[in-house]
Amino acid sequence: MRISIREQMWNLSILGLVIALTIWRGNQLPVFGSYEIKTILLGIVPIALLAMGQSLIIIGGGINLAIGAEAILINCITAKYSEGTDFATSLKWAIIGILIAAAIGALTGWIISQSGIADIVVTLATSFVLIGLALFIQPGPGGGVNLDFAQTFSGKGDSFLSPLLVLFLPILLIWLPLQRSRIGISFYAIGSSKDAAFLSGVNVKRTRILLYSLGGVFAGICGVSLTAITQAASPFAVISNTATLNSVAAAVLGGVSLAGGVGGLFGPALASLVLYYIPTIMLGYGIDPAYSQIIQGALTVLVVLVGGLLRSRGKR
Amino acid sequence: MVSLLEISGLAKSYGSVIALRNANFTVLPGEIHALMGANGAGKSTLVKILTGVIQSDAGSIKVNDAEIRFTSPDNARKNGVAPVFQDPALIPDLSVRRNLRLTNTDINTFQENIARLEISVDIEEQVSRIELPILRMIDLARALAHSPRLLILDEITAALPANLAETVIRVMNEEKKNGNSVIFISHRLSEIGEICDRVTVLRDGIDVDIFKTSEGDEDRIVSAMLGSKISANRSQARSSGNQNHPLLKVSSINDGHKLKDVSFTVNKGEVLGVVALEGQGQDALFEILAGERRAQSGEIDFNNTKVKFSHPSDAIKLGISYVPGDRKTALLPQRSIRENLALTKFRQLRSWSCINQDNEDTMVDKAVSNLEIDTRASSQVKRLSGGNQQKVTIGRWITTGFDLLLCFDPTRGIDVGTKNQIYQLLTGLSAQGKSVLLFTSELREIELVCDRAIVLYDGKIYGEFDASICDEELLLNAAHGRSS
Fold first, then answer.
1. Residues of chain B with pLDDT under 50
2. Residue B94 and residue A261: Cβ atoms within 8 Å?
């Protein structure tokens, strides 16, 4: 299978931007070694995972405004029930958490398919429900996790191998095989043209349920990684809302078309690095982080504008 | 001989609209069977049921004498029925290869069929970058790769250049020799006799005639499509407009796709009818005249001045009002009749000033009583019947005033009583010296309402007729590109 040239170009441009920003950030730091890389990776793992889940759903023609809330809920569930437990129990709850997230996703997809209500409305509503549930389970910041389990995710000492694996294993194990399968092609198909997909023999409803469920899996892994990295839960709507919006921004920056049917998961994963670097670099200059949001927003609009221009030129 | 496909008593309705009443249809093994019918006769509904896109309300489908129900397009394909639709069912953002993967089509078999169709295709190419005629051929090759016993070709020759159309016909005959069958749907009557073995004609959702092409000619198809002639009573004596005062003059309009060198004139106080089968470029023509779309070349003169529209408001300012075919695009469905009627009037007000309520009231009341709009459901236009909605879309322009009204199939899907009211409305307007350009899919309306009619065929003006000599047979023949 050949990735479209446009997608490759987009990924390369984002990669270039990431490299430039990495050098910039590297120059800010007195030393740039294994520990610094680990810090960066730990900073982007949750947002990158969420961006991948969101991208998947956007590729399939939907959007999930509850994806941040899904992650926060799983964060709360795993942190609450893993506190003070052994490795096996923590692992068990991590798996349960991911399965719950998948189930929530499937339910969301089912509601959208059955009701015919727009994705954006259904998921906005579920985001409130999920944050409410998270507060119910974990009324305030707290919880914890088995330390060994946490270190499997976040790495011991200076080694950045673990977070790197957490970032890339889902892509390697879920996305790469899926992309080549008929199911993965069906995701693109329903995102690109529902009618043509239906005529090609795709079960649109079932595919959409699977799509949201898989998005849920990514949100679940994100929730577990939050538990492992912070060793606590924070049931705040602000965090989940920011995370959701960042996931959409990363998807768009990463070359996923909001119209559906176009894009991949590598681009958004890279783009989440950009979203991480901007506030960090600005903070390095002692600039108020509030300003970095302006830059981040402006950059997103700029990239989408340039991308749109390139696309319309390509069509002519 | 056991028939390959046997359909009996098939019925389907959408809400209160009956698409198929009682359709019977058989296809024998090794035959090319034409399915004919005027717009709205039920052809496309029948095809959709046969391909598993929709399910019938009643009736049975038998394949090789075994009763079957097609539950999805995939299911139909597995049962040996493969369709090629007018709009190729290919995913635009995916490559050809991945599209094939989606339908579980074997690449090698596909490539063999591509070779058979004498075209070359890069299967890694993204579908949205491939031209429509080639996409149709790809869709056909994909259908053939599933070795169907029954191939359904819906208007496949319509957008194909002559050489590709010939190839398609050759392949159809090859399939026939191998004992497979083809259902062939085409607006080009001349093709039917040459290619097909038998013809089934649908009218109003019922099969009205079935015969061998060796036993009947094109005239038989046309008369079956028309049915018994309804004697038309012209609502009133018609003035045929003022020949000396052309209002709109269109010269050599091309839209770059379908329309080719279209020229005609609309006189003051005249209703000019436009007759065309589906997809002959009429939508583009109306959109160009309404300023919604730009012509690639050609000139439009209005009131003896050359005009160029870059926005619908340019056309409206000059006095050209457009009533589109889809009422839903013209109306604000959630708003009241009042607001919908007054909508076009708001344009005349200063942008930031308040709307004079009394003024609006008088105007709206006048329009409602003039048009006899049923106001029982006045709070939301979407709750009105189709006919009353249509009256609102026309009525809003009457309240603002115009010189030329572009009406696109205004009576589609509305009841007879309201139709008559709309006819009277249009003829009344022309009596007041207004001009109307009316596209209609109901040929009877030409005689009833129009002064003259032009026929579009394949994007070109096929002919111009005086409405007094326009019977349906003449128009239908002309619309199919043949002289009677």
1. 229-237
2. yes
Q: Is the pLDDT of residue A63 over 90?
A: yes
User: What Å distances lie between residue B38 and A27, A267, B22, CA to CA?
Assistant: 74, 51, 16
If one counts every other C-beta atom within 10 angstroms of the C-beta of residue B231, the result is 5
Q: What is the pLDDT of residue B231?
A: 42
Q: Give the CA diameter of chain B.
A: 78
User: Residue B144 half-sphere exposure, CB side, CA atoms within 13 Å?
Assistant: 24
Closest-approach residue (CA) in chain A for B48: A199
What tokens were used for B71? 């539950």
Contacts by residues B424-433 (CB-CB < 8 Å, ≥ 24 positions apart): B424/B235, B425/B371, B425/B391, B425/B394, B426/B271, B427/B235, B427/B236, B427/B238, B427/B271, B429/B398, B429/B405, B430/B238, B430/B239, B430/B241, B430/B269, B430/B270, B430/B271, B431/B236, B431/B239, B431/B269, B432/B269, B433/B268, B433/B269
Q: Which residues of A touch B104 (CB under 8 A)?
A: 182, 201
Q: Amino acid identity, residue B195?
A: I
Among candidate residues B71, B28, B66, the one with its CA nearest the CA of residue B50: B71
Alpha helices in chain A (DSSP H): 5-28, 34-59, 67-82, 87-115, 119-137, 147-154, 161-170, 176-180, 182-192, 194-199, 204-230, 237-253, 266-284, 289-315
Per the CB < 8 A criterion, the answer to whether B192 and B36 are in contact is yes
Could you read off the pLDDT of A88-144 as tens digits, one per residue? 999 999 999 999 999 999 999 999 999 989 999 999 999 999 999 999 999 989 888
Nearest-CB residue to A261 (from B88, B90, B93) = B93
One-letter amino acid for residue B210 of the chain: I
B contacts of A206 (beta carbons < 8 Å): none
Q: Which of B64, B71, B124, B65 is nearest to B100 (CA)?
A: B124
Q: Please provide the distance, in angstroms rounded to a whole number, between the alpha carbons at the two ends of chain B.
A: 37
> Which of B81, B87, B94 to probe by mutation at the A interface, max A CB count within 10 Å?
B94
ipTM above 0.85, yes or no: no
Polymer length in residues for chain A: 316
Residue B370: predicted pLDDT: 76
Give the C-alpha separation, A145 to A229, whole Å. Answer: 10
Give the Cα separation of B246 and B270 in Å (integer).
10
Instruction: Output the pLDDT for position A6.
Output: 65
- Chain A interface residues facing chain B, Cβ-Cβ under 8 Å? 1-2, 4, 182, 185-186, 188-189, 191-193, 195-203, 261-262
The mean pLDDT value of chain A amounts to 88
Lookup: tokens for B9 = 């008593």
User: For the segment B433-481, what is each residue's pLDDT rounded down to a tens digit?
Assistant: 889 999 988 787 888 888 899 999 888 888 888 888 888 888 888 888 8
DSSP string, A87-110: HHHHHHHHHHHHHHHHHHHHHHHH
Residue B400 CA: distances (Å) to CA of A272, B245, B372: 54, 23, 18
A202–B89 C-beta distance less than 8 A: no
Question: Is the pLDDT score of A210 beyond 70?
Answer: yes
Give the global pTM. Answer: 0.76
- Residue A1, pLDDT > 80, answer no
The pLDDT assigned to B232 comes to 44
The strand pair at B181-185 and B150-154 is best described as parallel
Q: What is the mean pLDDT of residues A217-246?
A: 91
Which chain A residues are Cβ-neighbours of B77 within 8 angstroms?
201
The pLDDT value given to residue A311: 62
CA distance A215 to A207: 12
Q: How many whole angstroms separate alpha carbon A183 and alpha carbon A189?
A: 9
How many CA atoms lie less than 13 Å away from A221 in the CB half-sphere?
24
Distance CA A134, CA A236 (A): 9
**3-class DSSP assignment, residue A201:** coil
